[in-house]
Amino acid sequence: MTTTEAPAPASGPGPAPSAATDPPAAVRAVRRWGFLLRRLGFYAAAAAAAIVLNFLLPRLMPGDPSSAIVEELQRVSGQQVPPETLESIRAIFGDPDQNLAEQFVGYLGQLARFDLGVSVVNFPVPVSELVLQALPWTLLLVGTTTVLAFVLGTGLGVIAGWKAGSRLDSILTPLTAFLSSVPYFWVALLALWVFGFVLGWFPLSGGYDANLAEGFNLPFLASVMHYGALPAATIVFSAFGGWLLGMRNMTVTTVREDYVLLAQAKGLSRGRVILRYAARNAMLPSFTGFAMALGGVIGGALLTETVFSYPGIGYLLFESLNKRDYPMMQGVFLIVTLATLLANLLADSLYVVLDPRIREQG
Amino acid sequence: MRPSSRGSGLLKGWKVRVGLSVIGFFVLLALLGPWLTSSIPGLDPRANDLTAIGLPPSADHWLGTTQFGQDVLAQTIEGARGSLFVGFLSAVIGTSLAILVGLPAGYFGGRTDSWLNFLSNLFIVMPVLPLILIVAGYMQGTGLWVIALIIGFFGWSGGARTIRAQAMSVSNRDFVLAMRTLGEPHHRLLFHEVLPHLTGWIAAMFLSGVIGGVMAEAGLAFLGISDSGAISWGTMIQAAQQQSAVLRGMWWWFVPPGLCIALVATAATLVNFGVDELANPKLRTVRRSVVRRTRDRANETAVGSDA
């Protein structure tokens, strides 16, 4: 990494860069975009790796969709599958005996057409259609709660860190340490039992009242809110503690820096010192974590959606895994991975806005 | 503070002591559990008592029984072994991989670093849980061994980043540079000079790796990836979920194993708190009485100087 950043020797036309003056605007712009370009390169490589992994995993592992279906057919019918049936099955779900390079070319061609194959369980619905149906639910539920948990945890963390050792801090910090140690799905089970079963305040499963037609009308949206409240609350409840702890510790460290003391000595208002001087700098590590959490949104949806049978992408993966729906597993995994990479890239770009040092030094 | 050795300083904090005691208790439970459950009559985790199906906690069964008439207390004790086994094995694998990737990256720098760092960044951005799930899904009929292997194999990347940063800092210190100039072989420097300086980080990483492993096993078991024959806290919760324990109000089935996981994880967090505070004294919160006393004294001297 360091070799590429070494300053190039001055040559050719243009102002010669000197150590005493600021680098010319063009150089600054290159540095500013250099960071993002390098990240872009990394994510492109990561996406390529994910695609190759997605191609290789099912082929390296025992079991493939075609053989699974053939075995299932033989088990059910009790006789050998006729060759024409075998051929048509392999035409749809892939031939395990085909040469690997040929398979890969065919696979890339399919991907280019956003063809993720056909679901075995919901035959003949394309995997891509099922994924696109489930995606908005996950983005809505886990996306909003991730942001909510981040804002809540970071805010409380600043307060706890600013007043380290205070009564608030000494209650909040150990409590959140405990909260973030509790397995998420267990909290969800408890919540389901208490609020869903014992008290009966919330429905036990699903994303909306199945008697209502889907659409942008008030009863349906209200039902979505009602069904989503408990899953959302459990996510926020078990996620905000981690943010609080990280932010608290960073704030404690930042608050004792000289520039914060100077800001206080200048007589700036307390709120301004906390927000503009202490919190902004303390937040940077938390923000890196937030980038990863954003990336983990879809992966993290797995447990939530499984507990509440929520119609998102995590539940789709869970179902396909239980029913050994290989094309579906593959498709969901690829989409989850690519979405994760995209979210990380977006968060990286935001980071450039937040931390000027990256902009200037690259 | 008087100059004391790091170890004894570490044990002075209540957080570390409480944390280590709790972890020690559960390790003991994992080691002695099978002996306990086999030597106490009526405490067999696998025995199906058909006269006691789905009973709430009572004098006979302290934590009640499952839908299959099994004693929940016995299962919780037995589960400690399964869960901690996965936790420790996956932490050993994950920590070893983290060292294997992070140490040379930080020490050699340059092209070695570029490649190794790319590798760990790749594993950091990949969604690990779905990946583990897919791999475990293809490997049908997995045992606790395989689950621990998979968790460890996909769980090293964050640690590698830490090790890399620390190894980089240690490798650039004068004593390492001097020995390098003297022609000391790399493997000697790596394992005898750089690595010992990272023990604290590695220990902390191992501890959180154990907890991560216990949690991951529970999560995977909950999603149906588990060894159906083995008993762990994860498989207990999964069995409860599958038999609709929530809808039947059988809270005593899934509360104890989850509580045990939470206790072990909290204990580990406490230990890590203590270690953090040792490494970063700014985090040490002062006792309020001390603050008040110091402030009063400062005010007194300020008043005194005004006069």
UniProtKB/TrEMBL annotation, chain A:
The keyword Acetylation is annotated on this UniProt entry: no
Main location: membrane
Any single Gene Ontology cellular-component annotation: plasma membrane
Superkingdom, natural source: Bacteria
Domain ABC transmembrane type-1: 135-347
Annotated GO biological process: transmembrane transport
Keywords: Membrane, Transmembrane, Transmembrane helix, Transport
Transmembrane regions listed in the UniProt entry: 40-57, 137-162, 183-204, 224-246, 282-308, 328-354
Keyword ATP-binding appears in the UniProt entry: no
InterPro entries noted in UniProt: MetI-like, MetI-like_sf
Stretches the record annotates as Disordered: 1-23
Entry membrane topology: Multi-pass membrane protein
Record's subcellular location: Cell membrane; Membrane
Family to which the UniProt record says this protein belongs: Belongs to the binding-protein-dependent transport system permease family.
Protein name: Peptide/nickel transport system permease protein
Organism per entry: Promicromonospora sukumoe
Automatic annotation (TrEMBL), chain B:
Transmembrane segments: 16-36, 84-103, 115-138, 144-163, 198-225, 251-275
One Pfam family recorded for the sequence: BPD_transp_1
Keyword Ubl conjugation set for record: no
GO molecular function list: dipeptide transmembrane transporter activity
Compartment(s) where it occurs, according to its Swiss-Prot or TrEMBL record: Cell membrane
Topology with respect to the bilayer: Multi-pass membrane protein
Residue ranges constituting the ABC transmembrane type-1 domain according to the UniProt record: 80-272
Any one GO CC term of the record: plasma membrane
Top-level taxon of the source organism: Bacteria
Gene3D superfamilies recorded: MetI-like
Database matches in CDD domains: TM_PBP2 (cd06261)
Keywords: Cell membrane, Membrane, Transmembrane, Transmembrane helix, Transport
Predominant cellular place of this UniProt entry's protein: membrane
Similarity section: Belongs to the binding-protein-dependent transport system permease family.
Protein name: Peptide/nickel transport system permease protein
Originating organism: Promicromonospora sukumoe
